[in-house]
Predict the structure.
Amino acid sequence: MVKTNESSNIKNLLFLSLCLMVGFILLPSMVYSQGDPRTQNRGSWSSEAAGSWLDGPQFLRKADALIPIEPTPSLEGTRYYIDEWLPGAIVLIDNVATREYDLKMDAFNNQVHFQTEEGVFALSSKNIRSFYLNDEEGKIFFKNGFTYPRADIEPSTFMRVIYNGDLKLLAHHTADVRESRSKIVATSGRVTGKFIQRTDYYIQMPDDQMHKLRKLKKKHVLRVLDEFSNEAEEYAQKNDLEFDDEEDLASIFSYYEQLMYRGSK
């Protein structure tokens, strides 16, 4: 009887060890696979990271384009998409993910700023494949690799991903500087001004064709999603969804994709 108990205990220990090993192996890729409670339609981001990650000094050595960041003088407003440090992680161009750092998205320079014990640094978008910010409502995902030359959208430009399927809904955040001179500052030669935030929305079709929306309005969205526009409008009305609400529009996109898949069969 004692031998049976010992054998059972050994089996339990082996099983527990196996579970722990699997957990440590899967942990890096899970950074990008957790669901966002605001929308469940962004697809799996576990493929962004190739199952390995970097931590601390190792990441700083890997990132070969680090730029120290100094405070912006004489400018009102903010250059950042959200003007507070939020925990987030980065996937580099070789699909290696970092641990979570305090991050900001610099909409003025199209950069990711991160805070470490050594100070605040910027990492060029050319070294990044994607990243997320984690706020109170869930993860906010940014990704590059999109192209729309007429609006200066290049492969290195970060786009916020609102809906991530074969059909994509994207937001491009920019910050421009509006300069102003007053009699007081003119005598000192200083230029003051403020950052002006702007958000433009885009739809990427399954064939990768990009469409810029004039506004996040029903008529502009349905002008692009014209194949099943009647069905999409009826679905929105039935479920009390608004085309100018990002979360509602993500639900409409999810339904529209179902219609696309049915039509292709």
Observations:
- The first strand starts at residue 53 and ends at 54.
